[in-house]
Design a protein that fits this description.
By secondary structure, this protein is an alpha/beta fold. It has three domains: 64 residues, Winged helix-like DNA-binding domain superfamily/Winged helix DNA-binding domain (Arc Repressor Mutant, subunit A, Orthogonal Bundle); 114 residues, Periplasmic binding protein-like II (D-Maltodextrin-Binding Protein, domain 2); 105 residues, D-Maltodextrin-Binding Protein, domain 2. Strands 3, 4, 5, 6, 9, 10 and 11 form a seven-stranded mixed β-sheet that branches. It has a two-stranded antiparallel ribbon with strand order 1-2. The longest helix has 27 residues.
Length: 303
């Protein structure tokens, strides 16, 4: 028989997320002693230490990491129970933990505005990271849905296409290659490139494309932000490979130029992804159905 409470699990998960008792207290809107007491009571109930000092902060013990995984799954299941009961009672409400790879942040807010016009009582908690970090969160069952480009090659995940994702090479308007027409991809061999960080889906797509055509660019700078990359390219640092969904304003204003390269843009797709074993609450299912039915046309009109 368990002797711990849902409140203790919620508090522990917030400590694990923030890495700090004080930050957990701030997030939960309670005092630090209250958070420390909840943690102590949970450790006493389980008979194990869940955290340990690490410099000025704390980190999870090995046992704490195991408990975090089970606690997250338990809290998620209980939330889904609440939402399923609410749906049975005719109440269209609930909460969705949505993950978005950083390139998709240019259009996802617009999609969520349209979704909430139809379902205003559904709360959405949004997390934005690169592909590698988002997959890690999904594997820990911390996300209901994940919007991403290149999906993992695994039987663990289920993915459905809902929109196109064209990718191309862009430059400053005065770059010499911006005046070339129908240029071969080989012309990019040895060219200066500003690129996304390793772990990014955009970086992965670029490397696969260049490897297929034996093109080796000169990487002059690596950045984790599309916005920083665009500024660097506009300043003349080099070329870049980006989703064209992220540069529509700059292309339209003439601040960036799309290179005319044979075989480009490379058309990939946006997917709504989740763990195959995930049992979705009604709110998450409604968002998934909305993306599949309406996401593509809305994005095409927006970007």
């Amino acid at each position: 028989m368990r002797h711990y409470t849902l409140r203790q699990l919620d508090t522990f998960l917030e400590i694990a997320r923030t890495g700090s008792v004080s930050r957990a207290a701030e997030s939960l809107h309670v005092t630090q002693p209250a958070v420390s007491m909840q943690l102590k009571q949970l450790e006493e109930a389980l008979g194990i230490s869940l955290v340990e000092a690490y410099g000025r902060s704390i980190r999870l013990t090995a046992a704490g990491r195991d408990v975090q995984e089970f606690a997250q799954a338990a809290v998620t299941q209980l939330r889904q129970l609440d939402e399923s009961v609410a749906d049975l009672r005719g109440m269209r409400r609930g909460k969705i933990d949505l993950g978005v790879v950083s390139t998709a942040k240019y259009f996802v807010p617009m999609l969520l505005v349209q979704f909430r016009k139809q379902f205003p009582d559904i709360e959405i908690a949004l997390q934005i990271h690169n592909r590698e970090n988002m997959l890690r969160l999904m594997q820990r069952n911390e996300l209901d849905l994940l919007i991403m480009g290149h999906v993992p090659d695994t039987k663990v995940c289920s993915s459905t296409v809902f929109a196109t994702n064209p990718l191309g090479i862009v430059s400053a308007p005065n770059h010499p290659l911006s005046r070339r027409r129908k240029a071969p991809l080989a012309i990019l061999d040895g060219a200066d490139f500003v690129v996304r960080e390793v772990g990014s889906g955009t970086r992965d797509a670029m490397e696969r494309l260049f490897a297929e055509h034996a093109v080796t660019p000169k990487i002059v700078m690596e950045m984790p932000s599309n916005e920083s990359i665009k500024q660097a390219v506009m300043a003349g640092m080099g070329l870049t490979f980006l989703s064209l969904r992220t540069v529509r304003h700059e292309l339209a204003a003439g601040h960036l130029a799309l290179l005319d390269i044979v075989g480009l843009p490379l058309v990939r797709h946006w997917h709504v992804t989740h763990l195959r074993s995930k049992r979705h609450a009604p709110a998450a299912l409604m968002l998934k159905e909305f993306l599949i039915a309406q996401g593509g046309p809305l994005i095409n009109a927006w970007a």
